[in-house]
Design a protein that fits this description.
With 276 residues, this protein is α+β, with helices and mostly antiparallel strands. The protein has seven helices and eleven strands. The radius of gyration is 20 Å and the shape is elongated. The protein binds zinc ion.
Length: 276
C-alpha cells in the first residue's frame, strides 16, 4: 500500500503531467470508486470543463485542485494513475478516465478496486469525511515534538497500532512504522504511556527522518519508475527492517523477527528494539 512518501511522489509526478489540462469528459467503469457525490453521472457532469490547477497531498490522499472543485483520491492497495494518448490501448482494471481536451487521458487503474474518489466544493473537504479527522502532517513545520507528545499522552495502546491510526499522525503505514520504530529502538508492542520523553523524542525524529529519506529517494527516482506510458507505481525503498525476516539486523547481526501486531505483519530486531 502506498504510504506518505509514495503518495508524495505520485503527487509530484502528476503535477508535472496534468497541470493546466482541461477535462473534456470523464468515464467511470466502476461506480463504487466514486464515493461522493452518490450519483456517478453527477460526478462526471461536475468535472466537465474543469482544469487541473494543482495537485496537493493530505495524509495518503491526493488532493486535486480544479477550477471550482476539489477531487480527493486515495490509492489504497494498488491504485495507479497513468497519462496516455487518446487511442492508446486501455489496460485491464482501468476504472476512471479523465479525457482531456488536448487528446490525452489520465487513467486510474486499480486491480484490487479499493481506491476511492470524492468531490467537494473548495474548503468543504476538510470539514467532512474522509479528511476531517486526519492527524498531524509529519513533514510540515507545525509537527513539533510538543504537539506530537500531546497527541500520545495517556494512550494505553501499543505504539505500532497508534502510529498506524491516521488520527494521530498521517501518512505512516505498515512499512514506515516498522522502519521508524527500528530507527528509534522501540519494540512495536511497547505501551505508549510507558515511553519516556527521551524515547518519544527519538521516535519523533525517526518518523521525520524515515519519511523524509523516502520522499527524497522517491523524488530522485521519479523518472525511473514512470514507464513509457507515464504510469506511476510504487518504487522500491532501501528498507532497514521491513520484509527482512530471518536476515541479520544491520546494526547488531541478530536475526530480524516477524510477529503480528494489531493484525499487521511486523518486523523488528529483538536486540535493538527492547520492550523496556
Ligand atoms: Zn539489531
Amino acid at each position: 500500500m502506498p504510504e506518505l512518501p509514495e503518495v508524495e511522489t505520485v503527487k509530484r509526478t502528476l503535477s508535472q503531467l496534468i497541470i493546466n489540462k482541461t477535462i473534456d469528459y470523464v468515464t467511470v467503469h466502476l461506480p463504487r470508486i466514486i464515493q461522493r457525490p452518490d450519483d456517478v453521472v453527477q460526478f462526471c457532469a461536475l468535472l466537465e470543463n474543469q482544469t487541473f490547477k494543482k495537485v496537493e497531498r493530505r495524509g495518503k490522499f491526493l488532493r486535486f485542485i480544479l477550477d471550482d472543485l476539489i477531487l480527493l483520491s486515495h490509492l489504497r492497495m494498488e491504485g495507479r494513475y497513468g497519462l496516455f494518448q487518446k487511442g492508446d490501448q486501455v489496460e485491464k482494471h482501468t476504472h476512471v478516465t479523465f479525457h482531456f481536451k488536448d487528446d490525452t487521458e489520465l487513467r486510474y487503474k486499480d486491480v484490487r478496486q479499493f481506491g476511492t474518489m470524492h468531490l467537494f466544493e473548495p474548503g468543504e473537504e476538510f470539514l467532512k469525511p474522509p479528511l476531517h479527522k486526519l492527524g498531524l502532517e509529519p513533514l510540515e513545520a507545525n509537527f513539533t515534538f510538543d504537539v506530537f507528545k500531546e497527541k500520545l499522552k495517556n494512550r494505553k495502546t501499543k505504539i505500532k497500532p497508534l502510529l498506524l491510526n491516521q488520527e494521530v499522525v498521517v501518512g505512516l503505514g505498515n512499512i514506515y512504522v516498522d522502519e521508524a520504530l527500528f530507527l528509534a529502538g522501540i519494540h512495536p508492542e511497547h505501551t505508549v504511556d510507558q515511553l519516556k520523553d527521551s524515547i518519544l523524542k527519538k521516535l519523533y525524529d525517526a518518523i521525520i527522518i524515515t519519511l523524509q529519506n523516502a520522499v527524497d529517494a522517491g523524488g530522485s527516482s521519479i523518472k525511473s519508475y514512470v514507464n513509457g506510458q507515464g504510469e506511476m507505481g510504487m518504487f522500491q525503498q532501501q528498507l532497514k527492517i521491513y520484509g527482512r525476516k530471518s536476515e541479520p539486523c544491520y546494526n547488531c547481526g541478530t536475526l530480524v523477527e516477524r510477529i503480528v501486531v494489531g493484525g499487521r505483519g511486523t518486523h523488528f530486531c529483538p536486540n535493538c528494539q527492547l520492550v523496556n
